[in-house]
Every structure is written in C-alpha cells, then in structure tokens.
Predict the structure.
Amino acid sequence: MLKDVLTSVEDSELFSRFLVVSPDQNVKVEANLPDGSFLHQEGQGLNAGVHQSSLFAAREKAVLLADIPLVEGRDLKELYSVGDIVPRVVLSPSLKGGTNVMVREPPGIIAPAYGLWSYSTHLRAAQKTGLAVYSVSNPRLSFDIDIPEDLITLRGRDPHGRTQTARCLQEMTPPHLSARISK
C-alpha cells in the first residue's frame, strides 16, 4: 500500500520531498526510500507518529496515510486546489468516519486526533479555530484498508491489478479462492 501511495505522491508533482514515519525499520528498506525520507517512530500509535513527524518536519503541510492504495496523483492535486485561503484545513474522510488525508496550512494549526470518528473530531477542531475548512471526498481517497474484508473489497475495485496492492493480493491468493472472492 505504501508503494501505491508514494507513486501517487510522485505522480502529483506537488511535493519536492516526503517523509515516511513508521515504528518498523523494515519499511525504509521495503519501500526503497532515499536517505532522509524515513523517520523511525518512537511513540506508539498513529497520533504519536503524526505528532513526531510534525515536530521533525515543522514546515510540512499534509498528512497522508499509507493505507489508501487507490489514491492517485490527481486526487492530491484536487486536495491542494481547494480554496486559496490561508490559513486553512482540508480534510478527506474515510468511508468509516476516519480521516485519510489532512492538509493544514500552517502546519500544526490543529492537532492530529486519529482514531474512531477522527474526521468529525478534526472537522470540529478546525471549525473552532475559525479557519477556512474544506472537505474533499471521492471513492479513491475515501477507501482505506483497515480490516481483512477491505482487502476483498479492494480486489473488486481493482480487479485488473492497477495498484501494487492488488497485484500483491493476486499473487497471494490461490487460484481456486480467487474465483470465489471475485463473485
């Protein structure tokens, strides 16, 4: 999934650099990340990782989760084209009520509060500041992988293996199960 997201980041041509944060050192090797693009997460949980990355890269505006394999570069361009007012917050909700992408200008204007129903938590926090707040939702941005059933759904949304994640699933699924999963 991370490779799919990183490909979309590169395709968007919006970012001159990016930072991947994970408690797993193997992520840097598996993703073939250049030096300076990986930060070993010290605390536990998603909010700790987002907070640590915000401190490390104080000028960074966007938080993009690596569990949205269908995201495309054009989706990221859409997020950045919404509203020309700064300060602002642009959120992209997941289908399950979470937040899949959060753009904060200036960075840190609202604190990360990922978890159950984080989209409404982030939205309320942004609204309380009086900032311009925007929400962008589309099927690629809204779909994330949280549970095994999401992988089955992904197979239906990407049956031809356009994404690295779908190709990996195809390789892992025995042929006799593939026919049943597709139905």
About this structure: The chain is about 45% helix and 15% strand. The radius of gyration is 17 Å. The first helix runs from residue 2 to 12.
